[in-house]
Design a protein that fits this description.
The structure is a single chain. By secondary structure, the protein is α+β, with helices and mostly antiparallel strands. The strands form two sheets. The chain has a seven-stranded antiparallel sheet with strand order 1-2-3-4-5-6-12. A five-stranded antiparallel sheet has the order 10-9-8-7-11, with no helix packed on it. Strand 7 and strand 8 form a beta hairpin. The longest helix has 24 residues.
Length: about 375
């Protein structure tokens, strides 16, 4: 069968209703039918965050196929949020183990649904952001890949110093036609060039490129080297050629679109500035390791972090927490984690047959559909 494409609705982490600290992907309720009771699907909209492992779990198999979704109430006055976690349970290599699904006695996946006060989730997120801001500002915590890149750069500089700077005046022959590079492409072979990003190099002088502007934006086309021009890229984009400037536009339209395009570029530049030393979702998700040390007093956590600022940044929250623990000491319990009034959903459909829950279900289904209970 051929590949099936769909549409992903992704909510940026800066969206005011996003309380995860990372990007969220919309999960249509029809994909959750049979997984959650219909009454919850009717009242909540579910967004999947970027989590790839549970925050804390004793079972090493829980991270297999792990997913976490947040159910935001459709009603603006809704008091609660749902956290839905898909967890791996047990292993087929150890069928004699105790950690198996109760209903089947076999390994597999299970679903945990927790209900928390929305106000508590917001407060939790707010305190995490206070700590995240000081970590980003001071550069104490950086992404793992950023630390690795800094390490490589340091080694390169060190080797260059040892060589006495012999290669200082040498210029690298950089191939402008590489995957990820942006150049201009004459897609219609009519002398008009459109900005495009190279997505694949075929090795025979042909390329696959994704168009970056005009009515072809987002379309992937095949082209060859003779129809690609890297030299005119800067001037064409600056002048808006085939982006907002067309031959049949009058001067007033030209000036209006040029002004709007400049605003968009400013927003992109601002976005690049915001992305400097920005914590990853995984790091924000584990900031509770730091807040736990100060009894969830975000200001105290901020104060203690500023006491241990040094030149070598951390990439793992756990390592930073170990250092912070040495300077925090005993903390007066003048603050605590927001009371979430947490409740865990018991799925009556999978209750063991001889249990009281199963007996209760057999009685309740006489009154209503099990999915509405």
């Amino acid at each position: 069968t051929g590949s099936v494409e769909s549409v992903l609705v992704i909510r940026d982490k800066r969206h005011q209703e996003n309380l995860s600290g990372g990007k969220e992907t919309l999960i249509p309720s029809r994909f959750l039918q049979g997984l959650l009771p219909q009454c919850l699907l009717d009242e909540y909209t579910f967004w999947q965050d970027e989590a790839i492992e549970p925050r804390s779990c004793q079972d090493p198999n829980a991270a297999r196929w792990y997913r976490r979704m947040r159910g935001y109430p459709d009603d603006d006055d809704g008091e609660h949020m749902l956290f839905v976690e898909l967890l791996g349970v047990g292993s087929w290599q150890h069928l004699q183990g105790k950690n198996l699904i109760d209903a089947t006695g076999l390994p597999g996946r299970t679903v945990q649904v927790r209900r928390l006060l929305k106000s508590a989730v917001k407060e939790d997120f707010s305190r995490r952001m206070v700590v995240a801001k000081v970590l980003e500002t001071t550069g104490m915590l950086i992404p793992e890949k950023e630390k690795a890149r800094n390490h490589v750069n340091d080694r390169s500089r060190s080797k260059k110093d040892q060589d006495g700077g012999k290669d200082k005046d040498k210029k690298k022959d950089v191939n402008p036609y590489q995957v990820g590079k942006v150049c201009n492409c004459d897609v219609f072979h009519d002398g008009n060039f459109y900005p495009a990003e190279i997505t694949h190099v075929h090795g025979d002088g042909n390329f696959s490129v994704k168009m970056q502007a005009g009515f072809l934006m987002g379309v992937v086309v095949e082209t060859s080297l003779v129809f690609m021009d890297k030299e005119s890229e800067k001037d064409d984009i600056t002048n808006g050629k085939n982006i907002w400037h067309w031959t049949d536009m009058d001067e007033e339209e030209d000036a209006l679109w040029a002004d709007n395009d400049s605003d968009d570029e400013d927003e992109i530049d601002d976005g690049k500035d915001r992305n400097k030393n920005v914590l990853t979702f995984h790091q924000i998700d584990h900031l509770d390791l730091l807040l736990d040390l100060t009894a969830w007093n975000a200001e105290l956590c901020k104060e203690k972090l500023l006491e241990i600022v040094h030149d070598e940044p951390y990439s793992q929250v756990a390592a930073l927490a170990a250092t912070l623990k040495e300077v925090v000491g005993k903390v007066d319990q003048d603050s605590e984690k927001p009371d979430s009034d947490e409740m865990v959903l018991l799925n009556l459909l999978y209750a063991p047959y001889s249990s009281r829950l199963s007996s209760l279900l057999r009685t309740l289904v006489r009154l209503d559909n099990a999915g509405q209970i």
